[in-house]
Amino acid sequence: MIRPMKFGDLDQIAGIWLDSNITAHNFLPKKYWEDQFPWVKHQIAQAQVFVAEEAGKIEGFIGLDGDEIEGLFVRAEARGRGVGSSLLNNTKNYHRHLSLHAYQKNQPAVKFYQAQGFKIAKAGEDPDTGESDYLMTWDK
Predict the structure, then answer these.
(1) pLDDT tens digits for 2-42?
(2) CA angle (58, 81, 100) in 5-degree steps
(3) Of 87, 91, 98, 105, which cross-links 138 as Cys (Cβ 3.0–4.6 Å)?
(4) Ranges for the N-acetyltransferase domain (predicted)?
C-alpha cells in the first residue's frame, strides 16, 4: 500500500535513508551521510513523502519537492520486489514531468531510472560532494 507519510513514520524513513545512502554511495565516506542525518531527518519531516507499506512495515519511500524527486529509497531486504517501481509509478500518476539527480557512479540507480523512462538531460556536479551527477527527467 502506498500512502502519505505520517509523523510516526519519521524514524523508520530516516533509517532507510541513512542505510540506503551508505550502501548505494560507498564512493563517499560513511561519515558524510552520518553528518547529514540530523538535517535530512528534519527536511524529511517537512517534505511531501509517500511510503510503501507492507504488513505494517515501511519498505520504502519517495520524497518530492514539487516535480523534483528529492529521493527514492527502499529498505535493503525489500529491494528487487518492485517497491521502487510502485512508488515511482504512483508518483507519475500525479505529475506530467519529474526530475531528479543521480550520482554517475551509482549505476544501479541510473539504470533503474532509465528503465522507468527517465532520460539523462545533463551531466553536472553535486556542489556538496564534488561528485559527478546526472540531471534525469521524465515526461508523460
Answers:
(1) 999 998 999 999 999 999 999 999 999 999 999 999 999 99
(2) 75
(3) 98
(4) 1-140
Query: Which secondary-structure segment (H or E) carries 86?
Result: helix 83-92
CB atoms within 10 A of CB 85: 15
Indicate the angle between helix axes 10-24 and 30-46, nearest 10 degrees: 150
Question: At residue 122, what is the residue type?
Answer: K
- For residue 135, the one-letter residue type is L
Q: Three-state SS for 52?
A: strand
Instruction: Indicate the CATH number of 2-139 among 3.40.630.30, 3.10.290.10, 3.30.870.10, 3.90.79.10.
Output: 3.40.630.30
Q: Is 136 left (phi over 0), alpha (psi -120 to 50) or beta?
A: beta
Domain ranges, ordered by start, for the chain: 2-139
The secondary structure of 33-74 as a DSSP string is HHHHHHHHHHHHHHSEEEEEEETTEEEEEEEEETTEEEEEEE
Q: Number of C-alpha atoms within 13 angstroms, CB side, residue 130?
A: 4
